Request: fold
Amino acid sequence: MKRYLKDYLILLIISGLIIAADQVSKYYVRTLLSLGQSWSPWDWLAPYARFVHWYNTGAAFGLFQGQGTVFGIFAVIVAVAILYYFPRVPSKEWILRLAMILQFAGALGNLIDRLTVGHVTDFISIGTFPVFNIADSSITIGTGIMLFGLWLQERANKRAMQNNLYESETQEKINPEAPI
Reply:
């Protein structure tokens, strides 16, 4: 039970900080910029990176517009699944845990927007890439980290299988009569 509390505390503190940064930044964008208005600290930076007040009724990066309810339900399912599985992931698998924290924070950050303002506030605009927010970034980075972690785990499993095969072959050469 103590371990679960420690695990949930880690999940809630880190994701809470990300959610707070996401919500505070969105609040300032909604308060300081009218819809469609953009701002950049330096004129020369504006073509490459700027803040722009935009909103999204679909998924991250403007995909599937008008499907906010579906993505809201999906966010709840993801959050509940992470709450269930997070303490069951061994502490040594910190890459997977970090990925889950980022995905949890991103899902809840955008869910809060859907429930409070009816859509997700986006504001980070880089080049011609779709406008996004901290929660979108958290989900995307979390997914990338998860894929990287799974790739590392697969490599380690292959290496272990090769080592086991090598040890079996070596044992057979040393003592061909011994059962493997």
Q: What stands out?
A: Residues 2-174 form one domain. The chain has a mean pLDDT of 90. The two ends are 41 Å apart (CA to CA).
